[in-house]
Amino acid sequence: MSVGELYIVATPIGNLQDVTLRALDVLKEVDCIAAEDTRHSRKLLNHFGIDKPMLSVHEHNEKQRAGEVIKKLSCGQSLALISDAGTPLISDPGYQLVKAVTSAGYVVRPIPGVCAAIAGLSVSGLATDRFHFEGFLPQKSGNRLEHLRLLSQEVSTLVFYEAPHRIEAFCSQLISCFGEEREAVFARELTKSFETINYGNLSEQMAWLKSDANQQRGEFVVMIEGYKQPESGEGLDVSAIQLMDLLLQDLPPNRASQIAAKFFGKKKKVFYDYALTKKS
């Protein structure tokens, strides 16, 4: 290990066996460990028998702490930055610290490991060649809806983080902006004892959340299929299109699609996609 360097160290998000050997080596060798919540991280360090001086670095003191970290680096000390769980800076504080340290001419090295977003994507079955990471959206409902509407035609897979007490309301907002037929994967408590990964469209996800209050516990990674431009009337003959046009004069897209699908014996999705083209 070189002196005067800052290491960005990923830590487990639940299962402690997910820590890497390199991460443990670095945490044992650095002179000081900067942590988002020192009391929380102390439990992790104690588990692995690591006893090092700690420095709190969180969103409210990050700029101030940057100066202290740079001073330690200038004295030849090496430091590690960890978050409460997972990879630092990913929906967590740290980027201001890293920017200040690199601007001051010091080396910052990544020690890769667990990231909830990547773990969720790897089992989602959704397209992963391109994805759009959003993390936690703004807490105010109006701001969240406005942001989701801007994302409604994003073609890449969308990845969100969400807290348990907001997950049902969040699912409702997703349905409002993306439609209930959009495919989604809800992953909760990844790597922990009650890890659950649920597949289905947004309507099915809402039903799942409401069916069992236990499914609303734990931190969520929510992944949404990217927007696919439907071809107007694809798979529909003239009579089906005429019926849909008539129904859409008085009914919302979901209800109109249900009626038309039942009448013609086709999948609801083809009617719903047509309804979306009419709305746009």
Can you put this structure into words, describing what you see?
The protein has 3 domains: 5-114, Cobalt-precorrin-4 Transmethylase, domain 1; 117-224, Methyltransferase, Cobalt-precorrin-4 Transmethylase, Domain 2 (2-Layer Sandwich); 238-279. A 5-stranded parallel beta sheet has the order 3-2-4-1-5, with helices on both faces. It starts with a strand and ends with a helix. It is built from 11 helices and 10 strands. It is an alpha/beta fold. α6 links the parallel β6 and β7 (157-162). It is elongated, with a radius of gyration of 24 Å. Helices cover 41% and strands 18% of the residues. α3 runs parallel beside α4, α6 (141-151) packs across α7 (167-178) and α7 (167-178) packs antiparallel against α8.
Lay out the secondary structure.
Layout: E1 5-9, H1 21-29, E2 32-35, H2 38-47, E3 54-56, H3 62-74, E4 79-82, H4 95-103, E5 107-111, H5 116-122, E6 131-135, H6 141-151, E7 157-162, H7 167-178, E8 183-188, E9 196-201, H8 202-211, E10 220-224, H9 238-247, H10 253-264, H11 268-279
Helix pairs in contact: 3-4, 6-7, 7-8, 9-10, 10-11
